[in-house]
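Give me C-alpha cells for this 78-residue protein.
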Amino acid sequence: MEVFTDRRFEKTMVRLDDSSFYRCEFVDCRLLYGGGDVILQDCKLDRCQVQFYGPAARTVNILPALGWTYSPPHERLR
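Here you go.
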C-alpha cells in the first residue's frame, strides 16, 4: 500500500485504491476509486470529483435498485 503524508494534490487525477492518505489536501482533483482498500485520515477535499470504476462503479449503480438515493455532498446516503 502506497502512503502519502502531508501532501497537497492540485488539479490532478489521483487513484485512491490501495493507498493511504494522512493529512493530505485535494484541490480541484479527480479522485478515482475502484473498490480497493483506501485510508483517508484528516484530509481536506475542495472542489473534487469522484469517479467510480470497476467493482465500485457496479456497487454504486445497483444502489438505486435497492431503494437507496443519492444526497448532495456533505449529507449521508439514505
